[in-house]
Amino acid sequence: MPHDVGAGESAISPVASHLPGESGIWVLILGDLVIFTLFFATFTFYRGQSLALYTQSQHTLHQSFGALNTVLLLTSSLFVALAMNALRREADRTATGLLALAFCCGAGFLTVKYFEYGEKLRAGITLTTNEFYSFYYVLTGLHMIHVILGMGVLLFMCRGAWSGGRGPPRIVLMESGASFWHMVDILWVLIFPLLYLMK
Amino acid sequence: MFMIVFSVGWVVIARFLPPPSPNLTGLEVADFYRSNLFMIRLGLVLSQASLVFYLFWVASISSQLKRIEGASPILSETQLIGGAGGCAAILIACLVWGTVSFRPDRPPELTLMLNDLGWIIFTTTFAPFMTQDFAIAWAIFSDKSKSPIYPRWVAYFNIWTPLLFVPAGLILFFKTGPFAWNGILAFWIPLTIFFIWMIVMTVMTLKAMNRQTR
Q1: CA atoms within 13 A on the CB side of B96
Q2: Contact B209, B64 (CB under 8 A)
Q3: Domains assigned to chain A
Q4: What ipTM was assigned to the predicted interfaces of this complex?
Q5: Nearest CA-CA distance, residue A179 and chain B, Å
Q6: For B94-111, what is each residue's pLDDT tens digit?
Q7: Model confidence over B160-188: pLDDT tens digits?
Q8: What pTM was estimated for this model as a whole?
Q9: B153 vs A142: CB contact, 8 Å cut-off?
Q10: Counts of helices then strands in chain A (DSSP H, E)
Q11: Hey, which residues 43-82 in chain A have their CB within 8 Å of chain B?
């Protein structure tokens, strides 16, 4: 089993120092994480200023929408990870299928968001209703732009997997795309508890 | 140079940083101008002068992008147009603020309106800068040569920056809080990133020019 490496060994093996994707993509990923962290910090700061308003408004969010979307994104990340494995085994058809499934999860995420936003807007809750909802729309909206961008990346990866071609440059490109999608996933995993669950 | 002259004129002399709150009344805005009239006028003239450097800077990036693109320089020209548009927005904002300072004894509502106009032009304009970013990123990605003009991380960097200009679009909706034109998320972060972006592009463009002359 080549993957069966102990924790102590992996720390010194060359595999451990492997950075997935091309190094440039990490400028984007780490930069994005820094900025979202600033957003989260600002949110937490303003929340501390008027806790009652935030807790009260939070109760109107439907945790089921958020939870469903968490499951969808985590599943899509799993598909992407499996697809990367398939690509390394040169099982291109399987990889294409898995990436398409990941894309569908992304589409599912957007559908849920459509209903969630729709419900809020029908209830007369908009960007400027109060500070909590401003943060709610801005954080989820900015994240949604990332999801849409990421779905474009997934499509691009699908095409890459389908059209074949060999060699390390292709894997590196695919890993870059996969890393971006995982980041989109991580951001949601942070946004969900912050907006929907934090007590 | 653009950054230095603009900062001196706009921040040090005119004291436009931190921005006056969008929540101020017309009288308060008029006071802001009246209390510092000479320096505001001088600062705005200097801010406008700094734009000369901005245009040279935009053009030198485009000339590097043109080396990547060769015969059909669509992206380098898009970058050029974006830069010109961005420059126009900053210029017009300075002129509008200048108009406010020209007759500070106007009725307060007019002062308020012009001041709003200046700030809204300055802080909510994001499309031209975004155009520059995407054109630069796209051109770098299309660079397939063995010794690329710009390293590929610069392309990713130019995808990162426009994503953070997005909150600037929120300024119209808010008069207080983090998304107002003096708020941390809609103003301070995009402004900081804009300056980081200018530094990165300056350094990388100088490097590319050095390699070119060698």
Answers
A1: 19
A2: yes
A3: 21-57+69-197 (1.20.120.80)
A4: 0.81
A5: 13
A6: 999 999 999 888 898 899
A7: 999 888 888 888 888 888 888 888 888 88
A8: 0.84
A9: no
A10: 7, 0
A11: 46
